Amino acid sequence: MTAEEIIRKTRVSPLDDNKAPYLWEDVELVDYLNDAINDIMRSTEILRDRTSNTSITQISLLANLGIYALSDTVISVRSAMTSTSTIPLTLKTESWMDAHLSEWRTNYTPTEDGLNYLVPLLEQGTSRYVQVSPKIYDGTGEVIGASNISFSAAPNTIAHTGGALTTHFATGDVITVTGTTLNNSNFTVVSVLAGSMVVSETPVAEANTSATLRRKDGTLTMTVIRYPVSQIILETIHTQSPEISSVWHSKLRDGIAMYAYEKDDADCYNQGKADRARARFMRTIEEIKRENIRKYHAAGAVEVHAGTI
């Protein structure tokens, strides 16, 4: 069902607002629809992703870097594995790490237990991060410039004055550049000398920057609980559908209504109707949770207990 169809049916019931002039504008109902969808995603954790949106579920691991930003659409991380290991990372909280591995924020040497950890960090401003600990990669593969890294388009060259690029990079490496105005991107090394390297891609001419060059040393692939990749927008409601099973589309009408009836307007506000719509919507959320259990959790096996006949 498209978002347009959901809104049209919501106007008929339960809003009884299907004749112009409308009490609620389409743009308002679109906002309420997004709120209802996000409520379901957050409460039921129904939207799990590992492979369908790799821009969200995969992170390039860079030399000597432990902290990585998460997409705003990620609600939580459920599991993770690096491309350089067959053993999943162990998920832990910051407080657990502080209590058990005091140097986890800066350490890149293997821990005594031999495990690698993934730690969701507490929200920092408006951004969310995870930290790989210990840092899987040490300082080899990282060059931090100090107004001495330049980029040239002809030939495709990245130069480091007085540098030792051969210590850190080799032919075939993928280099991530940050800290520039024009060249924050990925480059593939074709050849490398101590003071310069030729890359496959064409840099933009930029001299004497304090760029940081880091080698890509693997990929972190996560299984995440997330919100929809794209929120519904008014301009495309005739083609957009909620990123949720069509079985639940009609139930979104109650989610829209519970917000609509709480609009601060004398003709719209009706707390009794809002509460009844909310009660129906919460029953839907509980039904989705039960459906998740039926789908993703195997029934327990009947076992013979020791000491019984």
Task: Describe, in plain words, how this protein is organized in 3D.
- The chain is of the alpha+beta class and 309 residues long.
- It has three domains: 3-46 and 229-294; 49-138 and 219-226, no CATH class; 146-210, no CATH class.
- It has helices at residues 3-12, 26-44, 54-57, 94-100, 165-168, 252-260, 271-296; strands at residues 48-49, 58-62, 67-69, 74-82, 90-91, 117-120, 129-133, 142-144, 149-152, 157-160, 174-178, 186-192, 196-199, 206-209, 212-226.
- The chain is elongated.
- Helix 1 packs across helix 6 and helix 6 (252-260) packs antiparallel against helix 7 (271-296).
- 26% of the residues lie in helices and 25% in strands.
- Strands 1, 2, 4, 8, 9, 10, 11, 12, 13, 14 and 15 form an eleven-stranded antiparallel sheet that branches.
- The mean pLDDT is 91.
- Strand 6 and strand 7 (129-133) form a beta hairpin.
- It is built from seven helices and 15 strands.
Instruction: Classify the beta-strand content into a percent band.
Output: 15-25%
**Got a strand count?**
15
Average pLDDT: 91
Helix content: 25-40%
Straight-line distance between termini: 56 Å
Largest sheet: 11 strands, antiparallel
Helix-and-strand structural type: alpha+beta
Q: Pick out the low-confidence regions.
A: none
Radius of gyration: 26 Å
Quaternary organisation of the protein chains? single chain
- The domain count comes to 3
Shape: elongated
Number of helices: 7
SSE pattern: HHEHEEEEHEEEEEHEEEEEHH
